[in-house]
Amino acid sequence: MARWGMIIDLDKCTACQACTIACRFENNVPFQGEEETRRGHTRYWNEVLSQEVGKYPMVKVRMIPRPCMHCDNPPCVQVCPVGATYKNQEGTVLQKYERCIGCRYCMVACPYGARFFNWKKPEFPEVMGNYTNPNVPIRPKGVVEKCTFCIQRVETARAEAKAAGRELMDGDVVPACVQTCTGRARYFGDLDDPNSQVYQLSRDTRATRLAEELGTKPKVYYLAEG
């Protein structure tokens, strides 16, 4: 059984936000429009955040890509009163939209701001109507949604490997954000497989995790800038 995780190399990331766009189209994340954005009703499953490092006048802005951390000890799962958010056998934190009552406890509990609430019925520009992904459900109004590590691609890769009569191999599963990364800054794989690239990079001396002191045990590692 795999334990999926991601590595993001901050030395390679150019903050081009191709990952944000790829995630939006792969996972049918609706467009919120100018008015909703002004009201703070944004929805990005995969966002690039900015952080100021240093003191004036020697201030540097660092860009940090932020998907869901898929924590091994996820606070969002612990607070959901109806079991709508859960962790599957492979450690991926997922959402049962048919159970979600929109209380947003999980949004408050998540220290990474990686969850978003559907404030209104999802809308897509008419010109993009034929580009929604049929493998991913369009979430209704009133539920919380988030990054799933492109679970649909995980299941597709698993089915293809089974049809070929073999086990999943490192590199078989490529989430949309990893596939489209222009700087090749992202890596995805099994954190429990000693032969996988993510396993080895997670043990690099530059490897760190966001807010690790909170005990959430994120499965997204960052390689600090050298």
Task: Note down, in words, how this protein is organized.
The structure is a single chain. The protein is an alpha+beta fold and 226 residues long. It has a single domain, classed as Alpha-Beta Plaits. Helices cover 21% and strands 19% of the residues. It has helices spanning 18-26, 33-38, 75-79, 105-109, 151-163, 176-180, 197-201; strands at 4-9, 47-53, 60-66, 85-87, 93-95, 115-117, 144-146, 186-190, 207-208, 220-223. Strand 4 and strand 5 (93-95) form a beta hairpin.
What is the string of helix and strand elements? Answer: EHHEEHEEHEEHHEHEE
* Integer count of domains: 1
State the low-pLDDT regions, or none.
none
CATH class annotation: Alpha Beta
Question: Any idea what the shape is?
Answer: globular
DSSP helix fraction: 10-25%
Rg estimate, integer Å: 18 Å
What is the topology, as strand order, of the major beta sheet? 8-1-10-9
Mean pLDDT: 92
Strand content: 15-25%
Structural class: alpha+beta
Number of helices: 7
Q: How many β-strands, per DSSP? A: 10
Q: CATH topology, anyone?
A: Alpha-Beta Plaits
The CATH architecture comes to: 2-Layer Sandwich
Largest β-sheet summary: 4 strands, mixed
Query: N- to C-terminal separation?
Result: 34 Å
